[in-house]
Automatic annotation (TrEMBL), chain A:
<protein>
    <submittedName>
        <fullName>PQQ-dependent catabolism-associated beta-propeller protein</fullName>
    </submittedName>
</protein>
<dbReference type="InterPro" id="IPR048433">
    <property type="entry name" value="YNCE-like_beta-prop"/>
</dbReference>
<dbReference type="InterPro" id="IPR022456">
    <property type="entry name" value="PQQ_b_propeller"/>
</dbReference>
<dbReference type="InterPro" id="IPR051200">
    <property type="entry name" value="Host-pathogen_enzymatic-act"/>
</dbReference>
<keyword id="KW-0732">Signal</keyword>
<dbReference type="InterPro" id="IPR015943">
    <property type="entry name" value="WD40/YVTN_repeat-like_dom_sf"/>
</dbReference>
<dbReference type="Pfam" id="PF21783">
    <property type="entry name" value="YNCE"/>
</dbReference>
<dbReference type="Pfam" id="PF10282">
    <property type="entry name" value="Lactonase"/>
</dbReference>
<dbReference type="InterPro" id="IPR011045">
    <property type="entry name" value="N2O_reductase_N"/>
</dbReference>
UniProtKB/TrEMBL annotation, chain B:
<protein>
    <submittedName>
        <fullName>ABC transporter, substrate binding protein, PQQ-dependent alcohol dehydrogenase system</fullName>
    </submittedName>
</protein>
<dbReference type="InterPro" id="IPR022478">
    <property type="entry name" value="ABC_transptr_sub-bd_PQQ"/>
</dbReference>
<dbReference type="GO" id="GO:0006865">
    <property type="term" value="P:amino acid transport"/>
</dbReference>
<comment type="similarity">
    <text>Belongs to the leucine-binding protein family.</text>
</comment>
<keyword id="KW-0029">Amino-acid transport</keyword>
<dbReference type="InterPro" id="IPR028082">
    <property type="entry name" value="Peripla_BP_I"/>
</dbReference>
<feature type="domain" description="Leucine-binding protein">
    <location>
        <begin position="54"/>
        <end position="203"/>
    </location>
</feature>
<dbReference type="InterPro" id="IPR028081">
    <property type="entry name" value="Leu-bd"/>
</dbReference>
<keyword id="KW-0732">Signal</keyword>
Amino acid sequence: MTARLLATVCLACLTAAPALANKVFVSNERGNSVTVLDSETWEVLTEFAAGNRPRGITISPDGSMLYVCASDDDLVRVFDTDTYEEIHTLPSGPDPELFILHPDGNPLYIANEDDNLVTVVDTETHQVLAEVPVGVEPEGMGISPDARFVVNTSETTNMAHFIDTEDFQIKYNVLVDQRPRYAQYSADGTKLFVTSEIGGTVSVMDIAEDGAPTLVHKISFEVPGVLPEWLQPVGAKVTSDGKLLFVALGPSNRVAVVDAETYEVLEYIIVGQRVWQLDFTPDEKYLLTTNGNSNDITVIDVEKLEAIKSIQVGEQPWGVVVAPDA
Amino acid sequence: MRNDVMAALLGAVWMCVAAAAGAVEVSYGLLRVDYPSQAPISRLEAKPADRGFAGAELATRDNQTTGQFMGQTYELTTVATTPEEAEDALAGLLADGASIIAVLANGADLLRLVERAGEDALILNIGAGDTNLRSENCRANLFHITPSTAMRADAIAQFAIWKKWTDWFLVHGSNPDDRELAEAYRRAARKFGARIVEEREFEDTGGARRTDTGHVLVQRQLPVFTQRAKDHDIVIAADASDVFAPYLPFHLWTPRPVLGSAGLQPVTFHPAHEAWGATQFQTRFEELAGRRVRGDDYDAWLAFRVIGEAVTRTGSADPNVLRDYVLSDEFELAAFKGVPVTMRGWNGQLRQPVLLYDGAITASVSPQDGFLHQVSPLDTLGLDAPESACTAFD
């Protein structure tokens, strides 16, 4: 049995193109830690302390620095991705939950859930560049590929706010369904997807050349035998070719696969409990999901649309980010 | 600095959204009727002077934050009054232009105030659980934000059935409210298939409840009072008057879990609730009020958030437009309870889960798994359409 397994593994080595190993970082909201995994072996490499109530997690474009929203510390902690030592902290405003990094690595746009603000922080000088008042309970953060607009969603106001990154003014507000959680642009910038946890929908906006949004569709979900109330869209990711949209459906323990052009739901993939956030490996062969209640992550094979593995991480995993190829 | 940013922003924001909405000014009020009452058994339950008001204030701030992007403004007036002066206080609010009024009062006073307000005002019930207000005494301009007593009793019953605790020992007080609450538990038992194997009435003889020697007497009286009851799985406490229930859990003759007015209690909200983003609500509330949230604060918050949501979606401050929207299938609202809350079109009761609170945590939330309904699992709690004699919404 072991021999056969070894043989299979070796065959895989010979036939498959060599996959790059990337580090996967998972924030554990209740465990106050970050778990590090290897995307080739799917083994846990280590777990390190990351401050109080780590939620939002992202990485610098060069892969050297890991940013973690330490929500209960009211700041962002920055870690070295090799040594896992804390390099410094960034001011974030109170209760940072989610953030988005400018594609160039600077600045960082942070949603302050308790203060109805989006805080813009220079990642080099560590200065607060702006505080932008938004709706009640700001949460989701997205940035257009050309970096002209940052989109923030406010959970109680139920809007997507389009913040101009030049002057930090809100240029557009779009009402969406209850408790918008996450905003994700398509790679070409022509579409924006906003998930609504309690509304149970994903709002689709067409984005004009000047960045102006038009609400064109609402995707809803249906699984026989599952109460509609449990189909709660949270995290979302789109493949870079713009063809597939993956939506984490929270307590229904499923990830929906949506045709990002026709908005038809193609598949529901069963993952762990209370699936929350998602991230692709850089080659988009795998999609990783954090499962808050089962304390694990699920690896989805993107081509087969199958869950292939789940790996135990820390207590209540919240966010996940995969390091870029070295 | 922040004010400058805000001012600059408001200008910019209004230009881009206000076109759709137009400027809307919403004026609403909260009328609280205070009754003479003894100190509660537990001083943790002492009533703060701003009870209810703080929740309304928080909702108004939340609404205003959203309103700044829509060109909508909200003005809240809060009034505390006595039963005798309640009608005049209501008239004052109406005269000042508030046509949407949340009322925190008992059922009889609420009904009196609804009649006084007239059909053009929209009244939001945030205090009265009476079944008759959701049935024969319903009114077309009266929405019930707070769950009915029947919803709460059903929430407890479903949990007990889920636990297979089907044999109940019902202990109720001797005042009319206690007897009405006991009746709600009897109905819940019939509805979900539990048996009340024994019933006893604990007589309210008045007198001091919190004297230094109070617990000594209680410790001797309650075991005797509860001895020789038929075999039971749980004790259901129906003590709307706050006379004895908190003493029950550790003074029973036969040790059994207590549910209802003590032990596991059916509540709209409590200060330890954290699920579904509620932590943020708790933080915001505590920062504003300087104290922990109460159920009536939450009900007041929810009442004005229902209105705020309707204003946001309709762009109107007209009570009739808002009422129609809230009654429509379009309306839903996130309320930190995991599922959207909506309105029952047949009697104006807000559909919502009921939290089961043990004094420290949310121990469970009803409706429980497996209680099914053709419309929504939430309609397994309280009066369903065929059971309600309400015709005002037809």
